[in-house]
Amino acid sequence: MSLSRKIAQNTAIQVGGKMIGTVLSLIAAGFVLRHLGDSGFGRYTTIVSFLQIFGTVADFGLYIVLLKKISTVEQGTRSKLVNTIFTLRVLSAVVFLGSAPLIAWIISLSHPLYGGEVLWGILLTTLFFFFISMNQLLSAIFQKFLRTDWIAVGELIGKSVLLVTTIVVVFSGWGLIPIMLTLVVSSGANFFTQFIASRKYIKLGFHLNTQHVKEVFREAWPIALSIGLVLLYFKGDTVLLTFFENDQVVGWYGAPYKILEVMVTFPAMFAGLALPVMTKAWHDKDTERFKRTLQKSFDAMVIIAIPLIVGTWMVAPFIMQVLAGDAFKNSVVVLNILIIPTAAIFLGTLFGYLVVSLNKQKSMIWGYGFVAVTSFLAYLVVIPRFSMIGAAWVTTYSEIAVMIIAMWITLHTSKIKLKYNMVWKAIIGSFGMFFGLMIVGVLSFQLTGDDFFGLRFESFTTFSAMHLAIDVPVAIISYILVMIVLKAVTKKEMKELLSLKS
After folding, report:
1. What distance in Å separates the CA atoms of residue 47 and residue 388, rounded to the nearest whole number?
2. Cβ contact 82:141 at 8 Å
3. 454: exposed, middle or buried (C-beta count within 10 Å: 0-12, 13-18, 19+)?
4. Do 383 and 240 contact (CB within 8 A), yes or no?
5. Is the pTM higher than 0.90?
């Protein structure tokens, strides 16, 4: 099998697995949201957001360094490098995640929200983030050997376990702590699946090579510092909100985040697949291949990100109603705002990874530092005054700013000029999708109340589900039709895609 065909098949498998995993995650999220309610989900959000800070810091930039170096390191030293980074990752996870419950306990002495059930939840859920940390590292190994099918298998097993255990907890009437345990069990199932599969390619073990440790830290510290700065704006909103608002408001803010966090796994997956290719092209001074891959990657992100905004604006009330129910009506406006930075993350992730590929981590620190400081100060000003709405708009500013900075560094360093034809085509295509959904809306609301094409439903949830069942296919079809008319994707590219030869 040719290399290009193998890459295409790996991409198709991982995308397919990710799509199925996304559906399972959203179903599980719906059960959790409805079971815990707004206040209970507020405590859930507090636990997860607090631990995300420590889990992200524990990464210390090791995943991106491994993803980059595993593509260029000689085969004879590959095992030592991987095991050195694996050992460093375990140590950092134990240190940082292990300190989270202690810090939460100290905060609980003066802030009641972090005591009791939340404190026990933080203690338990550290294992969830430990397994996530290990899974991320294993994915770099599978990407190197073009066996991302194992990533898909591990994720599907994990998401299936999550859904099953969540259903058991919900129908048993158990509370928050068992819900947090479902996260631990599912991520553990994912980890052990991938760990066993990885032994065919590299036998992981504890090992520290002094030379590799120096090399890794030399490349990782700018990324680690950048990650620390990113945390100020990425999770500063939710964590600060817990100090100014009650569980209910935190739950309203956390519900859209739960949905959007599922979506942003796609750009991370895509960038993870593209980074080794572009890193090697840059390393080999193959400028033409680097430019071609960057342009294709940029176009792919744009094609998804722009209609994502418009489509969400059109159906946000139905999404929140189906997934969360009546208790989360106030989350609709937050979802409409946060979908903008979510779309920015699609491009920001791609260019953020490329900054590392081009060895410009240190340059990016200044960008992260500027955004982190300005965003954190803005959170302190707007959250006490405008609560979750203010927090959402500051998050929008921060993600767009980071995207622009990373994009500028990448293009300035590589001396590549991107073509932006796809941006305008995606905007026009999104207008086509907008009008398609408007037509459905006008036809469905010809009758008043909860009528839908002449049908009357007893609950708004059923009505919303039926609306989504019609709206989503209409949105996709109308968008694709306009893009075909605009020749955004040629017939040749469609054939290559369908035959997995691209």
Report:
1. 18
2. yes
3. exposed
4. yes
5. no
